[in-house]
Structure formats: C-alpha cells, structure tokens
Amino acid sequence: MLAEKLKPGDTIGIISPSHVATMEGYAEIISGIEAKGFKVKAGRNLYKDTYGYLASEAERAGDLNEMAADAEVKLIFFGGGYGSIEVLPYIDYEIIKRNPKLFLSYSDGTSILNAIHTKTGLITYYGQSPGHFRDLKEYTFEQFSSHLVRRDAFCFVSNSKWYSLKEGIGEGTLIGGYTWNFALSINTPYLQLDRSKKYILFMEDFEAFSSVAAVSSYLACIEQSGFMEYVSGVLFGNYSDTLSEQLLNRLRRLGEKYDIPVAYCDDFGHGENHAILPVGGRAVLNTEKNSMRFLD
Questions:
Q1: LD-carboxypeptidase C-terminal domain spans which residues (predicted)?
Q2: Where in the chain is the domain with CATH 3.50.30.60?
Q3: Could you report the per-residue pLDDT of 232-276, keeping only the tens digit for each?
Q4: Which residue ranges does the chain devote to CATH 3.40.50.10740?
Q5: How far is CA 153 from CA 35, 93, 203, 275, in A?
Q6: In what order do the strands lie in the sheet with 73-77?
Q7: Is the separation of the CB atoms in 73 and 41 below 8 Å?
Q8: Which residues, other chains included, contact 91 with Cβ-Cβ below 8 Å and sequence gap of 6+?
Q9: What are 102-147's pLDDT values in tens digits?
Q10: How far is CA 214 from the centre of its chain?
Q11: CA within 20 to 30 Å of 276's CA: 27, 123, 175, 177, which one?
C-alpha cells in the first residue's frame, strides 16, 4: 500500500514518540519545514514530559493516532531517541489502514515504521528526522523531494563511497533501520516477516551509541531469529567518521556466512548524509556495481 505523495502547501504533522521536544529547539525545525513551502501541525503532546524523560505512552501514541485520523495531515514526521517500542501497542493501526499517509523517521523511529508496515502493509520511509530541517543540506532535501514529493526515486542516489564487502546481486523487499531497534523487534507482533519473500536488509548504527561489539551482538540476535535465511542482500549505513575496519570485517563475515551481497556506505544514518529507504518497497542491490535500484 502506497500513500499519496506530498504536494507543496500540504500539512506535515510533527510528533515525538522517542524524546522530549522543546519549543525553543523545534521553533527552528518548524521554520525550516515551512521555508520549504509546507504547513506544520504540532502534536498536542509534543512538548510534554509526563515521566520526566518522555510523555506517557498513551500521550505519544495519541499524537500519532490523531495525526493519522486528520485528513489535513499528509506526512507524519518524527525523530529518534529512546521509547518508540513502548508506544507500539497503543497505535491504532486500523486508522492508518483507512487513512494511508506518509510516515518518515529514522533511528529509534525504526520500531514504529516497521510496526506500521507489518500491521498495515503501508510503505513507510526511513532515513530522516525533523531535526535535519534545522540546517537542511541539499542532498537531504533532494532525497526528501524525490521519494515523497516528486516520487521519481528509481535508483538509490549515493553521496559517498561504497565499500563492497561481498560481491553479488540480490533482490527483495527493503526492511531494516537502526540495528538495536530491529534486533529487539524481530519476530514480535510488530515485526513479522513474510517467509514467502526475500528481503534486502538495510541497517545503520552509530559509534557514539554502540561499540562494534554491541553492533555484532545485535547482528547475532538477528541471525539467531532465523531471519537471515530470507535475506538476499545487506546494505549498512554510516557508523563513524573514520572507517571502522572491525565493523567492515564483521559485515564481510556476515556476507560470507550467508553467501549474500553486502556493502557499506555513508549515505544514510547518523552522519552527514540522510538518504531515504522505503520500508516495504522492493529493490535490487548490486554490490558488483555498488548500486541499488528501486522497483516500487
């Protein structure tokens, strides 16, 4: 299921399932979005800190559900932090089914994006946060425009060097996100995989939050879930400013173990580049030519 594309002048709903937003911090973000020709509607609980570190689960999910039911809102946009997993049981997936619209997030937003796709079949979008509009880079906005506004993103447009760690070609449905969230969610009711499909797994992590040993543990959880049997290729995004040979070696071993193409790039994640990947869209990953083509 594909939501309607975003048009200039449309309303973007801003919520915060994973961190406490501040009026001062979000004033710049909202101004940045409005400067690109869109209207902004803030969630009723956007600035609440009921628990001190977050609003309550019901408050955070309530904002998402209200935005999903609001015919005026065309894109629901939210960032990362910690806490998105807590809200999954409170999301009204039936409202989303009846009112399919665009969802865009990254990092901790992984859990919500995958849950919505699992429960509704709606394609969601991984790779950007409202915070990126505070100091919007050309590549980031071009990705936003090509996927959500013009909808002419037929090939993955790179802004970094790719490292082919296991050459090959794989085709499948795109799934993934932040490694910690993906590992925690897999095989729960909120990340159920179709065993009749093959998947292109995209992942990213960040050295400030996870050591290579931690990332390796998350990958081991994913492997032990049985999911890798259905993976036909892996693309890993930005991890650090300085290339981590330890991480590259871990990803090489993953590719060799499952005999699938694997590549690393700096095009998405917590670095300077914020490419978008459609969760649930089909793609062909070619690590012989360091490219990816979107099929949906």
A1: 171-285
A2: 163-294
A3: 999 999 999 999 999 999 999 999 999 999 999 999 999 999 999
A4: 11-149
A5: 23, 27, 20, 11
A6: 39-42, 11-14, 73-77, 102-105, 124-126, 277-279
A7: yes
A8: 61, 64, 65, 112, 115, 116, 119
A9: 999 999 999 999 999 999 999 999 999 999 999 999 999 999 999 9
A10: 20
A11: 27
Res. 210: pLDDT tops 80: yes
Which amino acid, residue 273? N
**Number of Cα atoms under 13 Å in the Cβ half of residue 234:** 28
Amino acid at 183: A
Residue 287 predicted with pLDDT over 80:
yes
Alpha helices in the chain (DSSP H): 23-34, 57-69, 84-87, 93-98, 110-120, 138-144, 179-185, 212-224, 245-258
Name the band, by pLDDT with cuts 50, 70 and 90, for residue 2: confident
Q: Supply φ then ψ for residue 268, to 5 degrees.
A: -145, 160
- The pLDDT assigned to 70 comes to 96
Judge whether residue 296 has pLDDT over 80: no
Contacts of 11 (CB under 8 A, 6+ apart): 38, 39, 40, 41, 72, 73, 74
Question: Would you state the structure tokens that stand for residue 274, as one six-digit string?
Answer: 């914020």
The amino acid that residue 57 corresponds to is: E
**CATH topology for the 163-294 domain:** Glucose Oxidase; domain 1 (3.50.30)
CB atoms within 10 A of CB 42: 17
For the residues of 59-108, what is the DSSP string, one character each?
A: HHHHHHHHHHH-TTEEEEE---SS-HHHHGGG--HHHHHHS--EEEE-GG
Q: What's the rounded Cα separation, in Å, for the pair 235 and 262?
A: 6
How far is the C-alpha of 100 from the C-alpha of 123, rounded, in Å? 9
The number of beta carbons lying within 10 Å of the beta carbon of residue 168 is 17
46 and 56 in contact (C-beta within 8 Å)? no
